[in-house]
Design brief:
binds guanosine-5'-monophosphate, 399 residues, TIM Barrel, alpha/beta, 2 domains, 5-stranded parallel beta sheet, binds manganese (II) ion
């Protein structure tokens, strides 16, 4: 009989058989050994755990009922360090509880004695392939910088803590077209942790670790600092990004928080990428922020899934057009129409429009022509550490 999942690699895979009954182990070991597997046996779960720790085992097959440590306990011990290693559990007494437990802790399969050796071989073949696949997937995820399953939580926590320790804020000017002045600066989070490159990776880690609140509080405190010194005497505004989750953090609306003290100088950017509709009381929370003196901007307008729903909900003072609308706007009549209708709608409602992500002179000219009030992007100035870039050094870029 041929298996659907023949082992393909030249290296024989190692199967670890675990049972306190030598007869059972010996016959299955012989059967698998004759079919291109390297078989090792252990008479107790504790010995099996020790063997797995040494590495090089591709599949574990274990009896459930063993004295001292059961097969299910073995499975749990293995899962602490091995998220993917397939464990096949075998039992003489099919009990619903142990089956349920086995599934909960991620047993690969649950086989009832007497074990048909050919069925076991097929199961092991399949397990070897699934294991290879799982490991390949995990490696790919790690390579792409999006850390994998729950098992790397400890690693992710360590990276996140390093990211927080090396956190700093970059500031990028937002320029006013009409009088060629600096209207404000957007504060952008940065970290020097190589494993979490870019603010997106840091935010993703915080989401996974339930640390968004802490990240937000640290970021806002750091963002506020120029208002205390270099921005203290000029009228420019500070733009600060909020994660939608921050809207429900009492710290944002606390009167003594770092930003609330300077709220009249702060524009809170709320992205329209994520849906706000699932959140409680968004309207009330926004109006409370407004009462404290904050202004509200919709960020990334045009990139959201939800049409203009966030627009109605936030009633913003300022609208930031998404970079995708800005890119090559000078060469796309569709983008030109969209930008023109957005800027004229905003003007009717008394709102200012920011075009962000401007990279070329042609984009700049098109956006000015289409009625954008404010411009931001690499073409004018990259986000950078303080000291803040002043208009004197970049006035030429406004034409
Ligand atoms: O989501 P939000 O719009 O806040 O993201 C702003 C991001 O865009 C920042 O990380 C900033 O570094 C980046 N950025 C700023 N200006 C430009 C630009 O001109 N081009 C590109 N590609 N990115 C920019
Ligand atoms: Mn932003």
């Amino acid at each position: 009989m041929t298996s659907e999942f023949p082992p393909t690699s030249a290296e024989p895979s190692t199967v670890l058989l675990v049972d306190d009954e030598p007869v059972f182990v010996r016959s299955l070991a012989r059967y698998l050994g004759e079919r291109k597997y390297r078989v090792e046996t252990r008479g107790s779960a504790a010995d099996a755990v020790a063997r797995v720790r040494e590495g090089g085992v591709q599949v574990v097959v274990s009896d459930i009922s063993m004295p001292r440590m059961t097969g299910v306990e073995l499975l749990r011990a293995i899962r602490e360090h091995e998220p993917d290693l397939p464990v096949v559990l075998v039992t003489g007494l099919p009990a619903v509880e142990s089956a349920a437990e086995a599934v909960e802790y991620g047993a690969f399969k649950y086989i009832v004695k007497p074990v048909d050796p050919e069925i076991l071989r097929q199961t092991v073949d399949q397990a070897v392939h699934v294991y290879r696949l799982a490991r390949a997937k995990r490696e790919a995820l790690e390579l792409l910088g999006t850390a994998g399953g729950a098992s790397d939580r400890a690693g992710l926590e360590a990276c996140f803590e390093r990211a927080l320790a090396s956190l700093w804020m970059a500031f990028q000017p937002i320029l006013r077209v009409s009088d060629k002045s600096v209207f404000g600066y957007e504060a952008l989070m940065r970290s020097d942790e190589p494993a979490l490159p870019g603010p997106g990776a840091v935010i993703y880690a915080a989401e996974r670790l339930g640390q968004l609140g802490r990240l937000g509080r640290i970021t806002r405190e750091r963002a506020a600092s120029p208002l205390m010194d270099s921005m203290a005497d000029d009228p420019s505004l500070l733009f600060v990004n909020l994660h939608p989750q921050d809207l429900v953090d009492p710290d944002v609306a606390a009167r003594d928080s770092a930003l609330a003290k300077v709220a009249h100088r702060v524009v809170l950017e709320i992205t329209e990428r994520a849906s706000l509709e699932s959140m409680d009381n968004v309207r009330a929370r926004i109006s409370h922020l407004r009462e404290l003196g904050f202004r509200i901007a919709v960020d990334d307008l045009g990139a959201g899934y939800a049409g203009l729903s966030s627009f109605a909900l936030l009633e913003p003072d300022i609208v930031k057009l998404d970079m995708t609308l800005v890119r090559d706007v000078d060469r796309s009549s569709v983008k030109q129409k969209l930008v023109a209708s957005m800027t004229s709608l905003c003007k009717d409602m008394g709102l200012l429009t920011v075009a962000e992500g401007v990279e070329t002179q042609a984009e700049r000219d098109a956006l000015i022509h289409l009625g954008c009030d404010l411009l931001q992007g690499f073409y004018f100035a990259r986000p950078s550490r303080p000291p803040l870039i002043d208009i004197g050094s970049i006035r030429d870029t406004l034409g």
